[in-house]
Amino acid sequence: MPDWLPIALIAGVAALAVLLLMLALRGRAAERMDRIAATLDAITAAQERLAARTDERMREQERALGQRLDVAAERTQATASAIQQRLSVIDSARQNIEALGGQVTSLAAVLGNKQARGALGEVQLRDLVQDRLPPSGFAWQHTLSNGTRCDCLIRLPFPPGPIAVDSKFPLEAWAAMQDAPDVTSRAQAARRFAADIRRHVDDISKKYLIPGETAEGALMFLPSEAIHAALLAQHGDLFAEAARRGVHIVGPSSFWAVLNTMRGLLRDARLQDEARRIRQQVEALAEETSRLERRVGALRGHYAAMAQDMRDIEVTAEKIARRGDAIRALDIPDETPRKAAE
């Protein structure tokens, strides 16, 4: 045997083994490739499904986002409209405040003028009185028997009688007391204010309290509720002193309550007057009823006499009828034809 033959056999066997190994590896690789391809197909299908789900979710999110954006846009528009309305209200309020500032300035000018301030108090007095009392229950600028003229006279019956109302108020000392820069100036203004009030109360008690013509009390009307409250809180002794002199200091609210009471008094007086007139009419009606009864009695007597006369007439008529029947029953020869023949 040659020496190369074993080597060749070994090489051939090795080559055959390598070939068989390669074939086996190729089969396994094919299987693996098939498996890999199947896996890739599954992955591709899963990716496609995932992409479809992702697209669907994206579309849903886009729709939800669109709806949210629409709602947000509507809310934003509504908010903008509300802001615009509030800005309009604020602008209107600003204009009203500016107008009110001008009116306050005008009111300060009016209050600084005595005549204008008196006219303002009289206007407010007129509004309150005309709103609560009937036209016959008051008179404006009424002149009393002593020659003085009051702003308003409320015509209440006795008692208590007509009540005079004064709407003039000394405001200068009050304004000085409010604008005083220090305690000393405020105390001086307070003393001046108290003196002005006492002097005004004295004038009212002397001018508007007339025995037998007016009531025992008169009213001093303050056109400002704030001044009335501050005056009552800080100078209560002035109210008591004025009341002792027959002058009662009233503000708009308290005067409103007084007017309601006066309205009740006027209503009661009117009801009493109506009741008195009704009683007079009832008495007159009773008198007429008595007169009617007497006349009906006389008429009944006349009717009874007339009935008796009618019965007498009927009796006489019956007698006449019977006598006529008796006369017709007599046999009296008729001589009329004989006379006609002759």
From TrEMBL:
Keyword Transmembrane helix assigned: yes
UniProt similarity note: Belongs to the RmuC family.
PANTHER family: DNA RECOMBINATION PROTEIN RMUC
Gene source species: Falsiroseomonas stagni DSM 19981
Purpose of the protein: Involved in DNA recombination.
One record GO biological process: DNA recombination
Keywords tagged on the record: Coiled coil, DNA recombination, Membrane, Transmembrane, Transmembrane helix
InterPro entries found in the cross-reference section: DNA_recombination_RmuC (IPR003798)
UniProt cross-references to Pfam families, sorted A to Z: RmuC
UniProt feature coiled coil, ranges: 268-295
Protein name per UniProt: DNA recombination protein RmuC homolog
Transmembrane annotation, as ranges: 6-25
